[in-house]
Structure formats: C-alpha cells, structure tokens
Design a protein that fits this description.
Elements (H helix, E strand, L loop, with lengths): L11 H18 L1 H5 L2 H28 L5 H32 L18 H4 L7 H7 L5 H7 L2 H18 L5 H21 L2 H16 L8 H25 L4 H7 L1 H10 L6 H10 L4 H14 L2 H17 L6 H17 L6 H13 L14 H26 L5 H8 L4 H9 L1 H16 L1
Length: 448
Amino acid sequence: MAKKRTPIYKVLYFQVICAIVCGVLLGYFAPDWGAMMKPFGDGFIKLIKMIIAPVIFCTVVTGIAGMEDMKKVGKTGGLALLYFEVVSTIALIVGLFIVNVCQPGVGMHVDPKTLDAGAVAAYTGPGKMQTTTQFLMNIIPSTVVGAFAQGEILQVLFFSLLFGFALHKFGGRGTLVFDVIEKSSHVLFQIVGMIMRVAPIGAFGAMAFTIGKYGIASLVPLAELMGTFYLTCILFIFVVLGGICRWHGFSIFRYIGYIKEELLIVLGTSSSESVLPRMMAKMEHAGVSKSTVGLVIPTGYSFNLDGTAIYLTMAAVFIAQACDVQMTLFQQITLLAVLLLTSKGAAGVTGSGFIVLAATLSAVGHVPVAGLALILGIDRFMSEARALTNMIGNGIACIVVGQWMKDVNEDQLNEVMHPDKRHLAEEAAMNMEADQIAASKQKNSYSK
C-alpha cells in the first residue's frame, strides 16, 4: 500500500518559503520591527552550531572505526583535498573571467581618498589574517574540550580522526565504546530533527533583519556587481558543477531538487553551517558511506569554498575597476595565485571574506584596501549566493569522492534523486530520528 504523502503545509521547504516571504514583507514595510527580529535568526544558528561538533565526532568515529581497510581513510582524505583545490581554482578563474568580461566597476571613477577607511578597519587590522603556519597549527586543539566548546570544525575533525583510528585498533565495531557512540549519534540526530522544526522561524528572523536593517534601496547603486556575481554563481553551478555531475552519472537538477529544503534554509539564514548536520544525513541517505560523509563534508566547509572563491576574485577586480586602477594580466594572475593561498588561511574566521580580501589586496599592492568600503553595504546580500554555492559544491564533492572510492550505493543514489521518489527523501529528512532508530535496530538484528 502506498504511503500517504505529507500535506504541503507540513513540508519544511514550504514552511521556509512562507517564512522568507513574511520576513521580506515585514522588513520592507516595517524596517524597525524587521531589524528587531535578528534574535530569531541568531538563535537558530546558535542551536545548529551547538550540535555540529558532537554530530561530526560521532559520524566520523563510527565511520572510521567501523571500516575494515584503514588505508581507505587516508586515500579518501587525499582525493577530497585534491578535488577541493582543483574546483576552487576553477571557481577563482571563472570569477576572474566574468568580472573582466562584464566589468561592473568600470565608469564609477571612485577616488579611494574619499572612502571611509574606518568602516573596514575591523577587517584590516594587524593579526586578523592567519598565516599558513598559524592555520595549520590551529587544527591542533589546545584541549579536546576547548575544540568542542568553541565549535572549531577542523579541530573536532582532527580529534575525531585520531579517536576513530584508536577505537579501530581497540576493536572497532562491536565494542562497548563503539556502541555508545553509535547510540549517541542516533540521539543527536533526534535533536537535529527537533531543531529543524524551528528553521522557518530562524529564516523569518534572519530575512526580516536583513531587509529591515539594510533596505532594498541600498542594493541599487551596486546592483550591477550583485547581478554579475549572482549570474556567475549560477553559471558555475550549472556549467562547471553540472558538468562534474554529468561526468559522474547524476543530474545537477535532480541533485538540487533533492536538497531544496537545505537550499531554502541557507537562503533564509545566509549560513551554510545551518544545514551541516542535515547535509550529512542527506548524503548518507543518498547512499554515500558514513566514513566518506564524515570526512568530506566537514573538511569541505573549510577547504571547498567555491562561492567564496568566485566572490573574492570578482570583488578584488571590481574595486580596481571602480577606482580606475588598471590591472595587467600578470597582476591578475598574481592575484589569483595569492588567493589560492589566502582563501584557505581564513577558513572559519568571522568576516573571513573581508579579512582575506584585505590581506590579498595588501599583498598584491595594486588595489587600494580602502576600496572594501564600496562593497561593505551589500556584502550581506551577496552572502546568500556565496553560502548556496558553497553548500551545493560540498554535497557534490561528497558524492564524487565517494564514487572515486567506490563508497556509493549507485542504485540508492539514483532512487532518492528520482523525481517520483524525492518526496520520500523529504519525509525521511524531516523524520531523521525515526530513520536513525530504524537503522540501529537493523544493525542490531544483523549482529544477532
């Protein structure tokens, strides 16, 4: 007997769409009230960040400790980093190419001396940008508790890898410690399911604040840059990432349909972290092994920032164009090379886009750092496209690396992405706790 489909008003993506529309309307017609809704968006982000570290720990530990071949872990990590670097480089080149073709800053004739340098001082002060050595050293936590308390994803991932390897040597699957962590994972995903029920409230608060605080009128002067950036992100997603998907046997359109709830949550909150636990659950539901998901998704949040890479090149060249600074081909290639390094060095740092831009412009030396003030007002509106592109790219990276490692159930992948089956995935994601409990019972029955 066919299972009755969930009514539309109970489906998360419909609730989030309604919340975003209500947020936009409130922010536009009652800006002061809209700005006051900020705590709702901040509260939802804090709820998600609260659960990210333990979810990563449990997923990575159970994934690695339950593996038979430990060499696959190192190979998976190496292939993931190779993929991240290649695709991020392509994103930088695409951004550089489009901004030179469209030239959104040409004709503005801005005098850098007239810009408010104080507005960007918070991002350009000494010590804001990490060096490569500091970045690498920061992966090692001062204390294990500190890594979890501060929510440092790479530090939690590093400790989780060590714990997973050690647990595997201790006996892995079937040991008491493994069973406790696995059961804890099921409890944590129940909590994620509870938190996601308030996602529409978070999206409403964040969107109402954005429109109420900055106003739609603030977009008009720099609309050409925003339009160019959004268009570039769309082209990158459907041409570059779409080509990668097609090469690996699945459709970018079906993939986007599969994660549409997550896309809407990111659109409302401007934060790709807001769906990190849910993306991990969705990738496992799509047939990717737990160990691959646990390695690729969290690492991608620091190393696979396709949207941010596009933004960095376009913003840097836009500032040069607006300030009538002519950049030669060699200078633009130098900019590209510097961004390949600096874009990784500020991963996870608040305001990282501006910090990386400031450090890069200072290193290149041709573009005035004060030009950052030009895009400060629209950065919030551009962050949605950055976050969406980053999130879409990370999910694709997880599937692709999983296929390279032969850790993907292809039949399951094709089934969950089929339009006729997609509603089952939506219902499964909304009831993650039930899925986790069912999986636990199934594993227990196998062990008996």
